[in-house]
Amino acid sequence: MVDKKRLIKTIQKLISIDSQNPPGDERKIAEFVGRYLKKLGLKIKTHTFNNKRVNILATLPGARREKSLLLTPHLDTVPAGASWKTPALKPKIIGNRIYGLGATDCKGNLASALEAINAIVEDKVKLDYDLIFAATADEESGSALGLIPLLERKLLKANVAVVLDADDFEIVITQKGLMHLSVHIGGKKAHGAYPWLGVNAIDLAAKIIMDLKAQTQHYPKNRYLHEPTINVGTIKGGDKVNVVSDWCEFELDFRFLPGYSEKEILRFLRKTITRYTRNYKIEIQGIQDPYYISPRHPLVSSLVSAMQSLGIKPRVSGSEGATVITFFKAMNIPAIATGFGTEGCAHIADEYACLDNLYNGARVLVEFLTKYKFN
After folding, report:
1. Shared domain check, 130 and 250
2. Residues 317, 221: one domain?
3. What's the predicted TM-score (pTM) here?
């Protein structure tokens, strides 16, 4: 049975352990999680891709060893910053709220998961499958020292995955893809008093950007997500105020829907640029695929059922931003994200989570894990 007092003690301990990223050091919090799970009899493995960046993997054997379900929160937090009214690493309970760095993102979810596993072991429940638990490093900086190498090196294998990194009993089944790129526009230098003798790359860039923003793209609809977006993140160009600029560079952030590809974005971008110039270069900085899983998938329907059975209203939704669920897509592992933090509290000063949510989140996980069945 889920023990609320024990859960509160766990979240207090987790908040008090510094795992800010940057600088990035998950050793102490990984040690705490490892000890916690080892006491419950789980098999523990650690994987370190940098001497301070520790990932904890644990396995609770089930009845069908050939099937496995992964539960994965992350260990790190963003830096606290200087705006906190109370010490960020000293948890404080006021009413139904617990304040502290990571309370919502993601130590509350971590605490709920640990308590759920504790309750399952304590009640001597035999799951239908192996439960794999991965508490990972470096999520706040892209997971290059955490989930990504664990999956790519096949150190972490599962049939399905539940990412614990969301708020208010949200069930994330889809998300936008992203493409980050820079565009370099060339021009012709001239004296600023005779601009007609040159080609101003800044002027060209401005026209291209306005054209990109003005065009209506055809894209597949998604009931859980807003339309695609283009954001101009940076722009720079020119050498001096009285010189016609012969260069301009700007960075674009494209967010696109499932069913649309980065190739289509690049075709759209090149077609727009060549209306104004052929003297350009595009450099792709990063791509993350969009993601979608059917709301009828057993992962989704089982979690919805678990929440409803406890009188909790699930929120099946999409994510406008990138999350780690797309990393599972590359490995052909069906995945969803859920969590029990408080919406709007991640990455803010005086971050908090609602204790009742964390308690009910642990109960939901117990209900979901014990009832989940593979075909």
Report:
1. no
2. no
3. 0.91
